[in-house]
Amino acid sequence: MANSVMKKMKLTPSVRYIVKNLVVLAGVSSVIVFLVNVNTGYNLLVSKLAQERLAERQYEDLSYDQRRTVKLGYNVTYLQLLRSRTPETAVILMPPDSVFRKTDEAHAFIDYWITNRGWASYFVYPRRLVYSDDLQAEPVVRPTHVAIVNDWGYDKLDYPVDKRYAYDVMPF
Amino acid sequence: MEIAGLLITLVFGLALVNAVAYRLPVWEKIGYAWPMGLGANALLMFMLDLMHISLRHVTGVLAVELALTIVLGVYIQRKYRPRLPEKSLLTIAAPRNLAWLLLMATVVFLVYVVTTRALFWPVYIYDSIYGFDFVAKAVAQEGTLNNAVFDPHHPLYSLRSLYPPLVALNFAFAYLLGFETSHIIVVIFYASLAVSLYAFLAQVTTPLGAAFYTLLLVTIPELFNFASLSSSNPICAYYCAMGLLALWRAVDTTCGLDLRMGAVLIALALWTRPEAIIFATVAGALVLWWSIKQKRIGAVVVVGVTFLAVWGSWQLYLQDVLHVTGDQPMDFDLTWDAGKLSRMLSRVMEVTFHGSYYGIVMFLFVAVVFLNIPFLWKQRHTSLLLVVIVAAWGLYLLVFYQLDTDFMPNSTDWIGDAYRRGMFNFIPLMLLYCAASPWSRTAFTGIERWLDADKSSVTE
């Protein structure tokens, strides 16, 4: 009994120890605050923490696909349209690169990533994209669908289309 | 399934670490466990693929890992009976002082932030989408590395898709477990890097010092950003840095614990990114030195053959199975071009000392190097770490110098891109060097002694 009381007393930190702890704590905290204030990298990191929290709140109701469009813009919106409207076995004929560069502001393809075959294929895989500019090199491929971009592509179809959308995908 | 699958790789890794180096301190083993488990997971997936067993049956992969864990567990139990006394986790993790608690709480908070951010956003970085994440998606869909991405008639690969497959296979593993994003794998390596570095630091400085330098690691702005992205750099940084640290520590010891652990980590690095060859060269030199000192030349032969086998296996796979070659934009003949070197070095300095990328770490490291000059000969083991850093950095710069570019402002910014992220490999080594310096040790020991002088009241 006496031993346990002694043990308890020994484990109780002294006032001096608590004060010293607070001094070191204040010192370490000051170093952190100082570094955040003088270094642009730490400063950005701290402000990014707040921004990220805001963004997560703003987009928390969005699906993964929708969050991807937040980051990658119309490139992905359009590729997701191709994916949702075609079967997995589809071979989709894409317009020449120049067509992607002529789009309007609402349908702007950021940095024209969509013209990169490997990058764009990631979003529609296992569907296959065949670019008109490459048809010479890939003559054996027979597309099953055509990507309609800024009205390009309707002339490839051998049937009339009543309701035309500027951005769509149609079967051959 | 997601959490269970990752926990199985953790336990598998822990069993492997115990089999390789049972006598290591418990925190080091915890730090090594997941990277080791995921590294072995990739090797296992690769072997199953070679045997034409579809990787889509992820439960099969997990079953093999569980079986191997049990076998290793029985082996370890028999070999190390009676068990070695180990400090309990509670004792080691007990709070030291308020400042230590603040620093560690900040580290844990930042790892938590990185985890939530990583799980919130889908993969969106260009390099990964047109690289290893695409390979991972195709592996998860088709069950093999030999998939549509490498179709010779319709190739969809980039140079990054041809990197050794540890990253792509683990990303595929994450998708097969049911994760919507592969980011979780990178987060695991980021957290493991913090745990492993803390464990190493705790051997050269006080707990407060270890916590301080660990916080400096996790707050490196560039690393903090990349830890929640689908990037292979933090993964490579773990293997290269921890492997070199283990080998550096091995040089002064006669037992092969650190040597075995370091060699395994560097072998896994060789399966992560091509730049690991540089670190494997330095690692090879350390192993050679150890072998000469211990008169055990067999060790360097075994390690050398292992490195070659790991690196060669993927090169052979690329050549004989995928039938693709990754043409590196490099000139393999050494040539002298003072203008090119000058332009490159000027950009190197600009990036290395850019405060937004690495915080204060580079400045601190350079300051400590200068302050340590009087101790260069007295503290030979710490000086050896400096030699390791400088040698690896020199080789790293040589690789960039040999790139097929003139480093003119309008050319590809290799330094601002690849070099910038490649510096992650060096930072844990630099922080350990700073922590081991007499200046840092004196400062942190002084603080903790001052605190401990009044630790408990004995008044009755």
Spatial shape of chain B: globular
Mean of pLDDT of chain A: 86
Multimerization status: heterodimer
What is the rounded distance between the termini of chain A? Answer: 91 Å
Per the principal axes of the C-alpha atoms, what is the gross shape of chain A?
A: rod-shaped
Number of DSSP strand runs of chain B? 0
Radius of gyration of chain A, taken over Cα atoms and rounded to an integer in Å: 30 Å
Transmembrane segments (chain B): 60-78, 98-120, 166-191, 197-220, 263-290, 297-317, 357-377, 384-403, 423-440
Keywords (chain B): Membrane, Transmembrane, Transmembrane helix
Report what the structure shows:
The complex is a heterodimer of chains A (172) and B (460). Chain A has 172 residues and is an alpha/beta fold. Chain A is built from seven helices and four strands, in the order H-H-H-H-H-E-H-H-E-E-E. Chain A has two domains: 57 residues, no CATH class; 108 residues, no CATH class. A four-stranded mixed beta sheet of chain A has the order 2-1-3-4. In chain A, helix 2 packs across helix 3 and helix 4 packs antiparallel against helix 5. With 460 residues, chain B is mainly α. Chain B has one domain. Chain B is 70% helix and 0% strand. Chain B is built from 22 helices and no strands. In chain B, helix 10 runs antiparallel to helix 21 and helix 19 packs antiparallel against helix 21. In chain B, 49% of the residues are buried. The mean pLDDT of chain B is 91. Classes of the chains: A alpha/beta (172), B mainly alpha (460). Chains A and B meet through helix 1, helix 2, helix 3, helix 4 and helix 7 of A and helix 5, helix 7, helix 11, helix 17 and helix 22 of B.
Concise account of the structure shown:
The complex is a heterodimer of chains A (172) and B (460). With 172 residues, chain A is α/β, with parallel strands linked by helices.
Question: Keywords, please?
Answer:
heterodimer, A: four-stranded mixed sheet, 7 helices, rod-shaped, B: mainly alpha, transmembrane (chain B), transmembrane helix (chain B), membrane (chain B)
